[in-house]
Amino acid sequence: MLKMTGIRKSFFLGGEEQMVLNQINLSVNEGDFVAILGPSGSGKSTLMNMIGCLDTPTGGEYSLSQQNVQELSEKELAAIRNKEIGFVFQQFHLLPRLSARLNVELPLVYAGLPAKERERRATDMLARVGLEERMEHLPSQLSGGQQQRVAIARAMVTEPTILLADEPTGALDQKTGKQIMSLFHQLNQEGKSIIMITHDPEIAKNAGRVFHILDGHLREEEAGC
Ligand code: ADP
Ligand code: MG
């Protein structure tokens, strides 16, 4: 489903090349629940941005759903991003003046769906994340955990191939973080492929496959460790 081979990423700072990721190999299959662990500044978000086609590698090969990402134009990249990837961030990124339901409908507005169909899909998705009683609330009227549920519903409503989450529990207390993790677990059990980035080993334990980024390299933990 997703395959990275020998991926490198460097940034140029003051004329000097800084290698952030070096020779990254990563294969993700349908139904996988992957956690990527690493200390702050190790390149987790940089990797997530490349997986999500928000940024391009300096070198190496990346294919996503049988397409060679390097060969795609900006327009094709935007299309693959909208179709294949659902993004969830640490800071929820909800629009404050829109209700939970309208936030979830937004990607469907961009996709050009009629209003009735949008409402039906957003309502179903919000019920799936346990927010049937909160659909017409504004983000400011919801707790952090509920806001993250709205963000997850918004990421899922277009039925993406992969759910990509960058520190999704980073802004939540421990108990709420655990509840969000069981939601990801439930979505994975229902068949969704998930890649989650975290710096918290406790959070990573929920995933089926655990990777570590260190010194620019990505290494998978052996199963059962
Ligand atoms: P993490 O998410 O693991 O905390 P990041 O991927 O955000 O780490 O950053 C990894 C390294 O890459 C850091 O040293 C950061 O300063 C550098 N970096 C990230 N994005 C850029 C950029 N656009 N330009 C220059 N350096 C960057
Ligand atoms: Mg980060």
Written account of the structure:
Keywords: ATP-binding, Nucleotide-binding, Transport. Belongs to the ABC transporter superfamily. GO terms for molecular function: ATP binding. With 225 residues, the chain is α/β, with parallel strands linked by helices. The protein has 7 helices and 10 strands. It has a 6-stranded mixed sheet with strand order 6-7-8-3-9-10, with helices on both faces. Helix 4 (115-128) crosses helix 5. The protein is globular and about 50 Å long. The model has no long low-confidence stretch (mean pLDDT 95). The structure holds adenosine-5'-diphosphate and magnesium ion (MG). Adenosine-5'-diphosphate binds at residues 11, 13, 20, 38, 40-46.
